[in-house]
Amino acid sequence: MKTVRLGAGMAFWGDNIRAAVELVERGQIDYLCCDHLAELTMSILGKQRAKDPSRGYTRDVLDLMRAVLPTATEKGIKIVTNAGGANPRSCGEAVAAIARELGVTVKIAVVTGDDILHRIDDLMDAGVPFANMETGRPLADVRERLTHANVYTGAEGIVEALEAGADVVICGRVTDVALYIGPLVHELGWAPDDWHRIGIAAAAAHAAECGGQATGGLLDGGWRDIEGMEAMGYPIAEVSEDGSVVITKPDGTGGAVTVATVSEQMVYEIHDPGTYLTADVTGDFTQITLTEVGEDRVELGGVTGREAPEMLKVNIGYRAGFVGEVQFTYTWPDAYDKAQRGLEFLRERLKRADFQFDDDRVEYIGINSMFGDRIPEPVDADLDEIVVRYAARCQSASEAAKIFTQSVPLYNNGPAGVAGIGTRPPLKELYALWPCLIPRELITQEVELMEVAGE
To answer: DSSP string of 127-154?
Structure first.
């Protein structure tokens, strides 16, 4: 019975490539599946591409390819990645340049079709509303501030690329699970509308896609028992043609694969476990079973799938102003009372500077910065120190900059015992997401091949 071993090489842009190197060198995998993208990542990459047409992909893929491409090619391990981000073609050319530099013979496929920014106006004219899924607002409200518009596409382009003999497949904004579903459809001969098996593929992919989260990272219950977090091994999904799935990791690596670690990953970001929506299938995980079948080996069963949704989600981003902020610390005695007077001072200074803002917030680092007003403000008169962060969202960078300039006089004009204002912090431009849908029949993936002949 044929079994395919898929290693989770990367879990986010900037992830350490060490785990991917270990998977290639001693994980006995068939595929290295690398996820570099998140929602905000696409906004950053779209901004980079706008400044430089050769940019727009996650550049950590370059270090990754230098580290693993020679060994992966020698062992016949194929690499599937969405590092192409907002510019898959440029990413493909950069990877090809590395292959030439290393003297590696490789066939590279670039999968496109997810980027619809250039089609937005035509699609709107054709009746696609792009209404915000959360607010119902029309896209016209932010149309002039868009940074990118990418559809979460499925595995069909990856399958086509692999069937054309690609060794490396570089995608844009395919779904995270498509990076795994594509190889499984190709290798095991599963039909793309075999919803039960594609549901199994989606579950296996979801178990592995977030890297160390399935091998003990972020484990809430029992984290003290996880050894070797500093050298965490990343998961391997073993999927057989009969639909059986085992999650494991390379021998000798840190972390652990247990029912607890896999369970926490399986409930991550799925919302309704009976309707796990992906571009390839609607997964049903309500009857999932997890069974430890050996050391660092958990069998996954009981999952299935239904027909893929008729609509695909679109990741649209737009510029949403700037954040200005300042932090300052007051010490005992009367730290909290001094902080309140310092905030009063700052707000009055900003008012006199005709400060224009959309929203602001105050938080106390180490007390309620994570939970906001769900945690009452501290009133303990014996606090040794209190760190205050004031931040505001503004439409312009010049308004946001006022927060720091008007806070500096706290050093000698406000209450005694202040510290930590420091130098001017960098202004942060904000990017917001516009979640919406598009009929899947309007999206077609395209595959381009390039061959590099090593010396």
So the answer is: T-----TTT---GGGTGGGEEEEEE-B-
At the topology level, CATH places domain 318-433 in Alpha-Beta Plaits (3.30.70)
Distances (CA, A) of 283 to 40, 176, 271: 25, 14, 11
Mean of pLDDT over the chain? 95
Question: Judging by beta carbons within 10 Å of its beta carbon (0-12, 13-18, 19+), is residue 24 exposed, middle or buried?
Answer: buried
Strand order in the sheet with 304-306: 276-277, 282-284, 304-306
Contact indicator for 9, 82 with CB cutoff of 8 Å:
no
Q: What is the DSSP pairing of strand 418-419 with strand 311-331?
A: antiparallel
Mean per-residue pLDDT, 217-223: 89
340 contacts 396 by C-beta, under 8 angstroms: no
Locate 319 and state its tokens: 């510029």
Tokens of 252: 């000798």
For 335-366, what is each residue's pLDDT tens digit? Answer: 999 999 999 999 999 999 999 999 999 999 98
Structural tokens at position 159: 């399958």
Q: Is 56 left (phi over 0), alpha (psi -120 to 50) or beta?
A: left
Domain extent listing, the chain: 3-113+152-309, 318-433
What pTM does this model have?
0.95
**Residues 54, 57, 63, 66: is their CA dihedral positive or negative?**
negative
pLDDT in tens, 264-276: 999 999 899 999 9
